[in-house]
Amino acid sequence: MTTTVTTCPLARPTLRAVLRWETFKLRSQRRTAAVLLGAALLPIPVAVIIHGQARPPKDTLFGRFATDNGFALALLILGFASQWVLPLLTAVVAGDIFASEDQHGTWKTVLTRSASRGQLFWAKTLTAGGFATLVLGLLAVSAIGSSLLVVGHDPVTGLSGQIIASPSALRLVAESWASMLPATWAFTALAILLSVWSRNPAVGIAAPVVLGMVMQLVGALGGIEAIRPLLITTSYESWHGLLTQPSFIGPLVQGAAVSAVWTAISLGTAFVLLRRRDITGG
Protein backbone atom coordinates (compact mmCIF):
# COMPACT_ATOMS: atom_id res chain seq x y z
CA MET A 1 0.00 0.00 0.00
CA THR A 2 1.44 3.28 -1.08
CA THR A 3 0.96 6.45 0.93
CA THR A 4 0.99 9.69 -0.94
CA VAL A 5 2.15 12.74 0.96
CA THR A 6 1.03 16.06 -0.38
CA THR A 7 2.75 19.26 0.64
CA CYS A 8 1.00 22.58 0.71
CA PRO A 9 2.99 25.64 -0.28
CA LEU A 10 3.55 28.13 2.49
CA ALA A 11 1.02 30.90 2.36
CA ARG A 12 2.54 34.29 1.68
CA PRO A 13 2.10 36.55 4.72
CA THR A 14 0.10 39.70 4.34
CA LEU A 15 1.65 43.16 4.42
CA ARG A 16 -0.07 43.66 7.77
CA ALA A 17 1.71 40.61 9.21
CA VAL A 18 5.10 41.77 7.92
CA LEU A 19 4.42 45.26 9.28
CA ARG A 20 3.53 43.81 12.67
CA TRP A 21 6.83 41.90 12.71
CA GLU A 22 8.87 44.98 11.77
CA THR A 23 7.10 46.98 14.46
CA PHE A 24 7.86 44.27 17.00
CA LYS A 25 11.54 44.31 16.05
CA LEU A 26 11.63 48.09 16.41
CA ARG A 27 9.96 48.00 19.83
CA SER A 28 12.47 45.46 21.08
CA GLN A 29 15.45 47.75 20.44
CA ARG A 30 16.78 49.83 23.33
CA ARG A 31 17.71 52.58 20.91
CA THR A 32 14.04 53.04 20.02
CA ALA A 33 13.04 53.52 23.65
CA ALA A 34 15.96 55.91 24.18
CA VAL A 35 14.96 58.12 21.23
CA LEU A 36 11.31 58.23 22.27
CA LEU A 37 12.27 58.99 25.86
CA GLY A 38 14.59 61.74 24.69
CA ALA A 39 11.89 63.27 22.50
CA ALA A 40 9.50 63.29 25.45
CA LEU A 41 11.91 64.64 28.08
CA LEU A 42 14.49 66.77 26.28
CA PRO A 43 12.25 69.86 25.81
CA ILE A 44 11.68 70.08 29.59
CA PRO A 45 15.24 71.07 30.64
CA VAL A 46 15.52 73.23 27.51
CA ALA A 47 12.43 75.19 28.58
CA VAL A 48 13.75 75.56 32.13
CA ILE A 49 17.20 76.71 30.98
CA ILE A 50 15.90 79.27 28.49
CA HIS A 51 13.38 80.61 30.99
CA GLY A 52 16.18 81.10 33.53
CA GLN A 53 18.36 83.15 31.21
CA ALA A 54 18.86 86.78 32.11
CA ARG A 55 18.92 87.80 28.45
CA PRO A 56 16.56 86.26 25.91
CA PRO A 57 17.95 85.05 22.55
CA LYS A 58 16.87 88.08 20.54
CA ASP A 59 18.54 86.94 17.33
CA THR A 60 15.85 84.31 16.65
CA LEU A 61 12.15 84.48 15.84
CA PHE A 62 10.13 84.77 19.07
CA GLY A 63 13.40 84.64 21.01
CA ARG A 64 12.91 88.05 22.57
CA PHE A 65 9.63 86.87 24.12
CA ALA A 66 10.74 83.32 24.97
CA THR A 67 11.63 84.02 28.61
CA ASP A 68 8.26 85.63 29.34
CA ASN A 69 5.78 83.77 27.11
CA GLY A 70 5.22 80.04 26.88
CA PHE A 71 3.89 80.09 23.32
CA ALA A 72 6.94 82.03 22.11
CA LEU A 73 9.21 79.56 23.90
CA ALA A 74 7.47 76.61 22.23
CA LEU A 75 8.02 78.25 18.84
CA LEU A 76 11.66 78.96 19.68
CA ILE A 77 12.17 75.27 20.47
CA LEU A 78 10.39 74.43 17.21
CA GLY A 79 12.86 76.53 15.22
CA PHE A 80 15.82 74.79 16.84
CA ALA A 81 14.33 71.29 16.56
CA SER A 82 13.52 71.67 12.88
CA GLN A 83 17.10 72.65 12.05
CA TRP A 84 19.05 69.98 13.91
CA VAL A 85 16.96 67.61 16.03
CA LEU A 86 14.24 66.20 13.77
CA PRO A 87 16.53 65.00 10.94
CA LEU A 88 18.69 63.19 13.50
CA LEU A 89 15.88 61.59 15.50
CA THR A 90 14.11 60.29 12.38
CA ALA A 91 17.33 59.02 10.77
CA VAL A 92 18.20 56.93 13.84
CA VAL A 93 15.59 54.39 12.72
CA ALA A 94 15.08 55.13 9.02
CA GLY A 95 18.80 55.15 8.29
CA ASP A 96 19.30 51.77 9.93
CA ILE A 97 16.14 49.82 9.18
CA PHE A 98 17.42 48.43 5.85
CA ALA A 99 21.18 48.64 6.40
CA SER A 100 20.94 46.55 9.57
CA GLU A 101 19.86 43.56 7.47
CA ASP A 102 23.07 43.95 5.43
CA GLN A 103 25.15 44.46 8.55
CA HIS A 104 23.89 41.23 10.12
CA GLY A 105 23.61 39.31 6.84
CA THR A 106 19.94 38.47 7.37
CA TRP A 107 18.43 39.32 3.97
CA LYS A 108 18.27 35.68 2.89
CA THR A 109 16.66 34.76 6.19
CA VAL A 110 13.88 37.36 6.04
CA LEU A 111 13.19 36.71 2.37
CA THR A 112 12.79 32.98 2.91
CA ARG A 113 9.84 33.60 5.23
CA SER A 114 7.70 33.85 2.07
CA ALA A 115 7.61 37.65 2.31
CA SER A 116 8.39 39.44 -0.93
CA ARG A 117 10.88 42.27 -1.29
CA GLY A 118 8.00 44.62 -1.94
CA GLN A 119 6.26 43.62 1.28
CA LEU A 120 9.45 44.02 3.28
CA PHE A 121 10.19 47.38 1.69
CA TRP A 122 6.79 48.87 2.46
CA ALA A 123 6.60 47.31 5.93
CA LYS A 124 9.97 48.82 6.85
CA THR A 125 9.05 52.14 5.23
CA LEU A 126 5.74 52.38 7.08
CA THR A 127 7.48 51.44 10.33
CA ALA A 128 10.09 54.18 9.87
CA GLY A 129 7.43 56.72 8.87
CA GLY A 130 5.27 55.84 11.85
CA PHE A 131 8.24 56.17 14.17
CA ALA A 132 9.08 59.60 12.73
CA THR A 133 5.47 60.71 13.26
CA LEU A 134 5.51 59.47 16.85
CA VAL A 135 8.80 61.23 17.57
CA LEU A 136 7.47 64.51 16.19
CA GLY A 137 4.26 64.14 18.21
CA LEU A 138 6.09 63.48 21.47
CA LEU A 139 8.48 66.33 20.86
CA ALA A 140 5.61 68.73 20.10
CA VAL A 141 3.51 67.77 23.13
CA SER A 142 6.52 67.95 25.43
CA ALA A 143 7.76 71.28 24.04
CA ILE A 144 4.36 72.97 24.16
CA GLY A 145 3.37 71.50 27.51
CA SER A 146 6.65 72.23 29.28
CA SER A 147 6.84 75.76 27.84
CA LEU A 148 3.36 76.64 29.05
CA LEU A 149 3.94 75.08 32.47
CA VAL A 150 7.33 76.73 33.01
CA VAL A 151 6.67 80.18 31.52
CA GLY A 152 2.89 80.59 31.31
CA HIS A 153 0.18 80.96 28.69
CA ASP A 154 -0.34 84.69 28.29
CA PRO A 155 -1.32 86.05 24.83
CA VAL A 156 1.61 86.14 22.44
CA THR A 157 2.72 88.80 19.98
CA GLY A 158 2.62 87.57 16.39
CA LEU A 159 5.09 88.29 13.60
CA SER A 160 3.00 91.25 12.41
CA GLY A 161 2.86 92.76 15.87
CA GLN A 162 -0.69 91.57 16.49
CA ILE A 163 -1.72 90.18 19.88
CA ILE A 164 -2.90 86.56 19.64
CA ALA A 165 -5.20 85.38 22.42
CA SER A 166 -4.21 82.26 24.32
CA PRO A 167 -6.75 79.83 22.78
CA SER A 168 -5.84 80.93 19.24
CA ALA A 169 -2.15 80.93 20.12
CA LEU A 170 -2.34 77.33 21.34
CA ARG A 171 -4.03 76.26 18.12
CA LEU A 172 -1.52 78.11 15.94
CA VAL A 173 1.48 76.74 17.83
CA ALA A 174 0.11 73.20 17.51
CA GLU A 175 -0.47 73.75 13.78
CA SER A 176 3.07 75.08 13.44
CA TRP A 177 4.48 71.90 14.97
CA ALA A 178 2.17 69.76 12.82
CA SER A 179 3.44 71.52 9.69
CA MET A 180 6.81 69.85 10.30
CA LEU A 181 5.38 66.46 9.31
CA PRO A 182 5.81 66.59 5.48
CA ALA A 183 9.47 67.64 5.72
CA THR A 184 10.09 65.07 8.46
CA TRP A 185 8.68 62.34 6.21
CA ALA A 186 10.92 63.61 3.40
CA PHE A 187 14.01 63.28 5.60
CA THR A 188 12.80 59.82 6.63
CA ALA A 189 12.54 58.79 2.99
CA LEU A 190 15.98 60.24 2.28
CA ALA A 191 17.43 58.25 5.19
CA ILE A 192 15.76 55.09 3.82
CA LEU A 193 17.32 55.70 0.41
CA LEU A 194 20.77 56.16 1.94
CA SER A 195 20.26 53.08 4.10
CA VAL A 196 19.39 50.93 1.07
CA TRP A 197 22.09 52.43 -1.14
CA SER A 198 25.00 52.39 1.30
CA ARG A 199 24.11 49.19 3.18
CA ASN A 200 25.84 50.94 6.10
CA PRO A 201 23.89 52.06 9.20
CA ALA A 202 26.42 54.79 9.99
CA VAL A 203 25.94 56.35 6.55
CA GLY A 204 22.17 55.95 6.70
CA ILE A 205 21.98 57.76 10.04
CA ALA A 206 24.68 60.41 9.67
CA ALA A 207 24.30 61.38 6.01
CA PRO A 208 20.73 62.79 6.29
CA VAL A 209 21.85 64.98 9.18
CA VAL A 210 24.84 66.24 7.22
CA LEU A 211 22.67 66.86 4.15
CA GLY A 212 20.22 68.77 6.33
CA MET A 213 23.04 70.99 7.60
CA VAL A 214 24.22 71.58 4.03
CA MET A 215 20.69 72.52 2.99
CA GLN A 216 20.49 74.94 5.89
CA LEU A 217 23.74 76.58 4.85
CA VAL A 218 22.78 76.72 1.17
CA GLY A 219 19.40 78.19 2.07
CA ALA A 220 21.11 80.97 4.03
CA LEU A 221 23.20 82.07 1.04
CA GLY A 222 22.12 84.94 -1.14
CA GLY A 223 21.49 84.81 -4.87
CA ILE A 224 19.95 81.32 -4.92
CA GLU A 225 16.28 82.22 -4.69
CA ALA A 226 15.45 79.69 -7.43
CA ILE A 227 17.01 76.80 -5.49
CA ARG A 228 15.96 77.64 -1.95
CA PRO A 229 12.24 76.66 -2.32
CA LEU A 230 13.34 73.21 -3.55
CA LEU A 231 15.20 72.33 -0.33
CA ILE A 232 13.56 70.18 2.32
CA THR A 233 14.77 72.48 5.07
CA THR A 234 12.89 75.42 3.54
CA SER A 235 9.67 73.54 4.29
CA TYR A 236 10.61 73.62 7.97
CA GLU A 237 10.25 77.42 7.89
CA SER A 238 6.83 77.54 6.24
CA TRP A 239 4.97 77.83 9.57
CA HIS A 240 5.88 81.52 9.83
CA GLY A 241 2.89 82.50 7.72
CA LEU A 242 0.52 81.15 10.36
CA LEU A 243 1.68 83.78 12.86
CA THR A 244 1.14 86.86 10.66
CA GLN A 245 -1.90 89.08 10.18
CA PRO A 246 -3.38 88.27 7.75
CA SER A 247 -2.02 84.74 7.72
CA PHE A 248 -0.87 83.09 4.51
CA ILE A 249 -0.44 79.40 3.73
CA GLY A 250 1.31 79.59 0.36
CA PRO A 251 4.68 78.50 1.78
CA LEU A 252 2.97 75.65 3.65
CA VAL A 253 1.40 74.30 0.46
CA GLN A 254 4.62 74.71 -1.49
CA GLY A 255 6.66 73.11 1.26
CA ALA A 256 4.31 70.13 1.45
CA ALA A 257 4.52 69.69 -2.33
CA VAL A 258 8.33 69.87 -2.32
CA SER A 259 8.51 67.40 0.56
CA ALA A 260 6.16 65.04 -1.28
CA VAL A 261 8.42 65.13 -4.36
CA TRP A 262 11.52 64.40 -2.25
CA THR A 263 9.66 61.56 -0.53
CA ALA A 264 8.44 60.02 -3.80
CA ILE A 265 11.83 60.21 -5.52
CA SER A 266 13.72 58.85 -2.49
CA LEU A 267 11.34 55.94 -1.91
CA GLY A 268 11.06 55.14 -5.61
CA THR A 269 14.83 55.02 -6.01
CA ALA A 270 15.25 52.96 -2.84
CA PHE A 271 12.60 50.48 -4.01
CA VAL A 272 14.31 49.99 -7.38
CA LEU A 273 17.70 49.51 -5.71
CA LEU A 274 16.29 46.91 -3.33
CA ARG A 275 14.47 45.01 -6.09
CA ARG A 276 17.67 44.79 -8.16
CA ARG A 277 19.92 43.81 -5.27
CA ASP A 278 21.71 40.49 -5.22
CA ILE A 279 21.24 39.11 -1.71
CA THR A 280 22.90 35.75 -2.25
CA GLY A 281 25.80 36.91 -0.08
CA GLY A 282 23.58 37.62 2.92
Automatic annotation (TrEMBL):
This is Unannotated protein. Coiled coil: none annotated. PANTHER family: INTEGRAL MEMBRANE PROTEIN-RELATED, MEMBRANE PROTEIN. Pfam families: ABC2_membrane_4. The chain crosses the membrane at residues 33-51, 71-99, 120-144, 177-197, 209-232, 252-274. Keywords: Membrane, Transmembrane, Transmembrane helix. The keyword Membrane applies.
